[in-house]
Amino acid sequence: MLGIATWFRGIRARILLVLAAPLAALVIVQVIGATSLRAVDERVGSLVETNIPGVVLSYEIELAARQMLMVTQEALLDYDPDSRGRKLERARAASQSLAENFDSLAGMDLSERSSQLLPKLRSTGDDLVSVLAPVWDYLSRNTMLANEEAQAILENEVPAKVAALDEQFEVFAGVRDESIDQAASEASASLASFSRVSLLATIIALAVSGTLGLFLANRLAGRINMISRRVREIAAGHGRLEDRRIGWRDSTELGSLVEAFDAFCETVTGIVNRFDEAAREVSSVGNDLAAASTEMTASLAEQAEQVSDISESTESMASQASEAAEAARHAAEASSHAREAAVEGRDTLARLIESMDSTRAAVSDGAASVTELGRRSEEIGQIIQVIDEIAEQTNLLALNAAIEAARAGEHGRGFAVVADEVRKLAERTQQATEQVTATVREIQAGTRTAVGLMDRGTGLAESGVQLSRGTSAAIERIFAEVRRSAERIEDVSSVLDQNRALSDAIRQRTGTISSAAGQQAQVSEETSRYANTLSDKAVELRSIIEDFRADRSAV
């Protein structure tokens, strides 16, 4: 209970009171406005429930009437019995829909004026249907006379009924629109009234809230200014903290703030005393640190000089190793080129040996073929000799036949002519045989010469193959020696590269060490400088603390 009473006496309760007064007024206004808006909403809802379905049905009634008339006119112009029948069915369906919509509209909760106009509107629609019914009957007969009767009704009676129905639709729609406008006007008036009441309540609530807020703000500002003035005095360093306590008590949150401020002054006073002791210790440590940094700087300078000498020696060794490795790489490249040339020569010689073996085989085959040709030419000579003998015998027989024909006289003259032709053929055969024999002898002589030459070429090819094989063996030995030399050179180059890499690593390490030594020297110098700065700041801090402790309230 005591805590609740204290809270109600606090600043938060007072601020809540200032805010609650206008909020309560606004809530009351909102409740009243909600009641008014609920009534407006019910009125608009009733209007919608009452008029909107009626509006929809009135439009459907008008649409059904117009569709009924339009389909009837289309049926009059359509002379196809089936098509006209379908259109007449649509017209009768439209009249049925018209009656059903009238029944639905009559069953609704319409306004008083709309309820009074609905019977007359329905009567006008029924009159139009009663006039169109005979037209449908005439059109269903589908005769010229019936069509003329239907057209006469449509031209003479129907326009008046349609005009009357349109007039009734306009009157009914005007009454419906007047009812909607009246409901909208009532809703607008209710909303305007609510807006005026809400604005007045808001102005009153703001006036009350502003008055209470100004009173509370003036009361709180005086005490807050007192606390602010003491804080500014402390911030400016005017006097000791224990002399700047406020000391008064209050039941509000400002009283708690004053108590916390007084406790803060006591705590800061203790912290300042500890700062003074710490500043003395920091000053002493800074002096010791500056001396140690000076000694470290001298030691690091000597170390950096030694590392520089080592780095120069390592640089010279790395340069020599790099030159040796470069020479070894050139030698390895030359050895690689020689090995490639030896491989190429070995491959070329192998192809040459293969080609000479093929040549030797081809020469041997050619010698065999030429020998066979010589043997065949001898056989041809034998055959020609047989032919020559046959030609001589034929010549003798032709001579004998000529003698016998001469003996026969006139009776053997034809036989003599045949014998003479046979003799001439035998002579030509002997001449051709002699020419062939001479040619065969020349071929046999050339064949023997070619066989001799081929035998000699075969021997030379065999000798070339043996020499090439000896040369191939010598190149193989050269290739093996070149490969071993190249491997040794590559081993030497690898060792030199490793030595150069090791020298580079040593040089980098010495460079890193030298850089680190230089950085350590810089750090040592900076540490010495920081130590001196720290000592100076400690002295300055002590001076500030002494000034803070001094009572300068008279300043």
Classify the helix fraction into a percent range. Answer: over 70%
The percent range for strand residues is: under 5%
* Coarse structural class: mainly alpha
Helical segment tally? 8
Biggest sheet features = none
CATH fold description of the largest domain: Four Helix Bundle (Hemerythrin (Met), subunit A)
Extended strand count: 0
Determine the N-to-C terminus distance: 49 Å
Task: List its salient traits.
single chain, 555 residues, mainly alpha, Four Helix Bundle (Hemerythrin (Met), subunit A), Helix Hairpins, 2 domains, flat, disordered C terminus
Architecture blueprint of SSEs:
Blueprint: H1 2-8, H2 11-77, H3 81-106, H4 112-141, H5 144-156, H6 158-235, H7 253-408, H8 413-549
Helix pairs in contact: 2-3, 2-4, 2-6, 3-4, 4-5, 4-6, 7-8
In a few lines, what is going on in this structure?
With 555 residues, the protein is mainly α.
Descriptive notes:
The protein has 555 residues and is an all-alpha fold. It has 2 domains: 2-227, Up-down Bundle (Four Helix Bundle (Hemerythrin (Met), subunit A)), CATH 1.20.120.1730; 315-515, Helix Hairpins. It contains 8 helices and no strands. It has helices at 2-8, 11-77, 81-106, 112-141, 144-156, 158-235, 253-408, 413-549.
